[in-house]
Amino acid sequence: MPNSCKEWTGSRMGTGGYGYLSVGGKRVLAHRWIWEQANGPIPAGKQVCHTCLDHPGCVELTHLVALTPKEKIAANAARGRHPHNYNFPPLTREQRARGSRMGTSKLTEDQVIEIRRLRAAGQTITSLAADFGVSNPLISMIARRVIWTHVA
After folding, report:
1. Rounded CA Rg of the chain
2. pLDDT at 17
3. How many CA atoms lie within 13 A of 25 on its CB side?
4. How far is CA 141 from the centre of its chain?
5. Which domains does the chain have, with CATH numbers?
């Protein structure tokens, strides 16, 4: 935690998450409540953001600013932060895990080619599903090229 941050000591959302309190029976985020007490209602289209980065528990008023989502992205980019708070660029289509590279995949690219060949030759969806140990809808989507579109 940066030295100048003021740590929220009340209830937290999850471990190390945003602080919150109850106002009029409603759960309110502590940093938003603090900002509104000093500045009035949050302007339409703006969010109360932390300038101290990666410290959602901070309620130091000087660390809170109201920004539009576009301004927040620009501020993060100026600090070397990716718009989605990652420190690396988004993956290209070619870099994304697809097909058998997905950890949950039950089929390989060769099996998908075989399924399409057999389905085109007239084998039923039900028999293909049984042969390959997958569901009927999966076979149907593979045969119609709804999924596994990267496989010829």
Report:
1. 25
2. 83
3. 0
4. 26
5. 1-88 (3.90.75.20), 99-143 (no CATH)
- Cβ count near 134 (within 10 Å): 16
Q: What is the pLDDT of residue 101?
A: 75
HEC string for the chain = CCCCCCECCCCECCCCCCEEEEECCEEEEHHHHHHHHHHCCCCCCCEEEECCCCCCCECCHHHEEEECHHHHHHHHHHCCCCCCCCCCCCCCCCCCCCHHHCCCCCCCHHHHHHHHHHHHCCCCHHHHHHHHCCCHHHHHHHHCCCCCCCCC
Report residues of the chain scoring pLDDT below 50: 1
**pLDDT at position 91:** 63
* Cβ(84)–Cβ(76) below 8 Å: no
5 contacts 55 by C-beta, under 8 angstroms: yes
> pLDDT digits over 31-70, tens only?
999 999 999 999 999 999 988 876 888 999 999 999 999 8
pTM: 0.52
How many other C-beta atoms lie within 10 A of the C-beta of residue 57? 21
Query: What is the pLDDT at residue 56?
Result: 86
Rounded to whole angstroms, the Cα distance separating 48 from 141 reads 44
